[in-house]
Amino acid sequence: MDKAKLILDGQEYELPVTRGPEGEVGIDIGKLRKESRAITLDYGYANTGSCESSITFIDGENGILRYRGYPIEQVAEHADFVEVCYLLVNGELPNADELAAFKHELTYHSMIHEDMKKFFEGYLPTAHPMAILSSMIASLSTYYPHANERVALNIIRLLAKAPTLAAFSFKKAIGQPFIYPRNDLSYTGNFLNMMFAVPAEPYQLSPTLERALNLLLILHADHEQNCSTSTVRMVGSSDANLFASISAGVCALWGPLHGGANQRVMDMLKMIHDDGGDVDKYVEKAKNREFRLMGFGHRVYKNFDPRATILKKAADEVLEELGINDPLLEIAKRLEEVALRDEFFVSRNLYPNVDFYSGLIYSAMGIPTKMFTVMFALGRMPGWLAHWKENRGNPKTRINRPRQIYTGEGARDFKEIADR
Ligand code: ACO
Hints:
This protein is mainly α. The protein has 19 helices and 6 strands.
């Protein structure tokens, strides 16, 4: 068997090596502490594999991303988001009957319990929709308490109800009545209708918007062991229920270094625009570490993010189709151009990531900046669900419980202080 050797304090330890079919190499340290009392230390887990997974493959050096083996470029061009959900969760693409049944299930379960509408009354109109989404998803476990016994059904429920919860949070924020889901519309069409229709007049669905949303959701659908997915796996590893695990994933995604970056990109582009559009000035500020260029850099992609390449092109097309001339798109392109020529960004392999252009498209679609990370969550939902399911189904899964190197005080006497 393949082995790696570690020498520690003069003692040699043999560590089994696991190799993936794409040439990835993992040194299995599962018995290291038991044999040597040593652990590994890896801030940010950049070198730590937490599991084996057959869902998504990323080759960050070469900008490759595949869902269940299918290249992202092909999936983005040919698939429907609902098919991608099925593919990620079940491992294979559906045949026509399976797809029809899956679509039916997703529409059938899209309503939320009528009582849940009352929850929205308690939130301030200014409440962040990510806070609402995570609370509402956790609240679903009060309606479906045996979540882990009926996993397939509850996966459907989450995929079906998340868009309803997201659209209701938007309606609440702008003070409009909730628009109920409609079973005659596509997954994306139904979401847009719930977001933008008003009872007083018919809402004309735009095929451009449906297509754009479909693309955005697909590109966000999974990204292997990112921060929010690892959170879902970690919470799930304690045998917490599916809704609680996904709610935790939403919270992890909210952070500006992860999914929250799409909101921050727009804020940054607006700031540069309002300050006269001098991108060089802001590149300099980023180099001086006064701020981070949001939407730039990635833990895994070190050459380019294939999702950003697709979205850059899509941003041009969607804005043109909608007849929108957004000066922020020009600023984004100039910023990318300047940064990609700059030694600071080149030497650190910092390229635009998926969040750099997504906000411009969402904005053109009429989706407010505050909702951007919620849109990301809707896209990432099938990925989270697929990983939660895979983790639970893997007999090797144990409760996730990292170790630490303790750096605090040595033992000291409390009684001595108490006696003073
Ligand atoms: N702007 C300026 N400098 C940056 C940026 C940035 N966006 N990102 C990284 N750097 C610099 C760091 O200062 C560091 O420089 P140093 O080595 O001289 O100290 C170097 O590049 C490496 O950065 P790390 O923070 O160590 O990289 P890490 O892999 O830990 O972080 C991350 C990756 C969080 C994505 C980071 O690049 C970042 O903060 N980007 C901006 C936020 C963002 O766009 N997040 C979305 C990521 S994609 C997603 O979650 C969907």
